[in-house]
Amino acid sequence: MKRLQLQRWSSSALSSRVRTGSRLHRQIYYSGARFQSTTSNSLQFEDDQSLAGQQPTPPSTNSPFPQFTKHQLPSPPIQAARESAKLAALHARLYLPSRLPLETLARCLVDTSADPNFQFNNNSLSVLGHDLLTNYASEHLVCTYPRLPLTVIFAAMYAYAGPKTLHAMSREWGVEHAAVPGGEVDPGLLQFKRVAPGTNLKEARPLVGTTRPNEDQTTWRKSITSSVVYDNVFGDPELAAPPPAELSDNVYPTNDGINSEPPVTAEVASANFVRAVVGAIYLHAGRQAAKRFFEQHFLSRQLDISKMFNFSQPARDLARLCARENYEAPVAKIISETGRRSRSPVFVVGVFSGRDKLGEGAGASLVEARSRAAVAALKGWYLYSPLEVRVPSAMEEDGAAPWKPVYVDLGEVIV
Amino acid sequence: MPVQGIRSVTSARNGVGAFILQCKRLDFHYCDWAGSSRGMVSFLKHQLNAFAKQNPQIEIRVSPRPHKHPVIKGHYINGREKAVCVRNLEPEQIFQKVNLLKQNSGEKNKRTKKPVTSINDSVRGIWSPYHGGLKSV
């Protein structure tokens, strides 16, 4: 397999301080020359505007450079990263590769709501990190549990790479939050603009402009298949990307002191930080390091998938499953019972297909015991896991053995 | 929809994949004048550098606290802090206290009655009175 050249296409997401040389880099350097700018704020504004439209001319370097003070900047300056003890401690605590500089880690800690300038916030890194995380998590789930129903896969994806988990991880990494973002703040703190306490988040921001057609029809049935097509990896409606015309105007937001970005919750900001760290590791240390980081920090967490099922009619589903797989129709039989006429009876019921016992359950009534038995049988089917699973990304390693196709199941039962 | 997924959050198992040291910050307070800080000042001068180099994951702060006994405070990831007064202690004894704070989880001290706790289900299963060797009355 030919290996992708990381350095060539990742330079747009890397910070301008790390690499030098290309034309792209000159652009980034120009637009990011916030600290060395010769112009006043209004002139800087015009420069940034012109940058989006036409080719920029390199800035003249022989004029004096008045420095911005720290208090005027929306996020800490780059030089502060080397002086922050918190940042160095965080770098060491996560055992991040030494190729990932402290400056990039500082950038990972700046949310879009704190600094709208894409050259200084973690937006690009977190987009990349999110894609990596969901890619690794989904290939692990699909290859390890090939028969999982889609709804359970969505829930498991949410458990591995969802914002709640990432927020918990950032807390467990010991990341502290800055009260208010600013240039004078320690760069080792997570910087974001906080939502005012007491804000009702659902009322404040109704989700409009999603990728789903007829999104205003709240009473319409939402099928799981449409969720695969329209929604994000967690099965939630996703905001549509703005059209390219709007994007090109906003690639380099101006730094005129007014931050119009909406405030975010700590959960969103922490999740973006964790994703950005994964993206930064991928860019600076390569694919293997990113995958190892995912395995050590994400995959090693405990998740019991057998507790993520919620069956509405298990007996019916089991009957449909047996019909699909050409098994004999399931029959429930009492295995043992006690106290049928008493206040607390117990029935142990097994579900049999021919001579094979598919599942067994105990309950206080016959119906309850039968449905428990059917749930046990369905879980036994859905939670099948082949031995010695290889995921597709294992092929990216050097000297990988030839790929053998993994087991792919028909999918869940359609009732 | 025949089956629905229940959303949950994965729980951390520190040390299974990656290990995160729970002590995130150590504060050293000393007094330049008082005699009870003599060992602490010597520790700060001669041993703290090496300790900080060996443990880069701990943020270290040193600050004077005039007319008070010397104190070491450990701040932990779970949000708690532990303080140890090191008055009149020798540098070696202070080093032991620093190691104690470094290796601590930050939880309250409690007596461990069962040496092994697990979040995984038992492999053997739970004994059931309704299976095997049933006696008919």
From TrEMBL, chain A:
<feature type="region of interest" description="Disordered">
    <location>
        <begin position="40"/>
        <end position="75"/>
    </location>
</feature>
<keyword id="KW-0689">Ribosomal protein</keyword>
<protein>
    <recommendedName>
        <fullName>Large ribosomal subunit protein mL44</fullName>
    </recommendedName>
</protein>
<dbReference type="InterPro" id="IPR014720">
    <property type="entry name" value="dsRBD_dom"/>
</dbReference>
<dbReference type="InterPro" id="IPR044443">
    <property type="entry name" value="Ribosomal_mL44_DSRM_fung"/>
</dbReference>
<dbReference type="Pfam" id="PF22892">
    <property type="entry name" value="DSRM_MRPL44"/>
</dbReference>
<feature type="domain" description="DRBM">
    <location>
        <begin position="313"/>
        <end position="383"/>
    </location>
</feature>
<keyword id="KW-0496">Mitochondrion</keyword>
<comment type="similarity">
    <text>Belongs to the ribonuclease III family. Mitochondrion-specific ribosomal protein mL44 subfamily.</text>
</comment>
<dbReference type="InterPro" id="IPR044444">
    <property type="entry name" value="Ribosomal_mL44_DSRM_metazoa"/>
</dbReference>
<keyword id="KW-0694">RNA-binding</keyword>
<dbReference type="InterPro" id="IPR036389">
    <property type="entry name" value="RNase_III_sf"/>
</dbReference>
<dbReference type="InterPro" id="IPR000999">
    <property type="entry name" value="RNase_III_dom"/>
</dbReference>
<keyword id="KW-0687">Ribonucleoprotein</keyword>
<feature type="compositionally biased region" description="Polar residues">
    <location>
        <begin position="62"/>
        <end position="72"/>
    </location>
</feature>
From TrEMBL, chain B:
<protein>
    <recommendedName>
        <fullName>Large ribosomal subunit protein mL43</fullName>
    </recommendedName>
</protein>
<keyword id="KW-0689">Ribosomal protein</keyword>
<dbReference type="InterPro" id="IPR007741">
    <property type="entry name" value="Ribosomal_mL43/mS25/NADH_DH"/>
</dbReference>
<keyword id="KW-0496">Mitochondrion</keyword>
<keyword id="KW-0687">Ribonucleoprotein</keyword>
<feature type="domain" description="Ribosomal protein/NADH dehydrogenase">
    <location>
        <begin position="32"/>
        <end position="105"/>
    </location>
</feature>
<dbReference type="GO" id="GO:0005840">
    <property type="term" value="C:ribosome"/>
</dbReference>
<comment type="similarity">
    <text>Belongs to the mitochondrion-specific ribosomal protein mL43 family.</text>
</comment>
<dbReference type="InterPro" id="IPR039927">
    <property type="entry name" value="Ribosomal_mL43"/>
</dbReference>
<dbReference type="InterPro" id="IPR036249">
    <property type="entry name" value="Thioredoxin-like_sf"/>
</dbReference>
<dbReference type="Pfam" id="PF05047">
    <property type="entry name" value="L51_S25_CI-B8"/>
</dbReference>
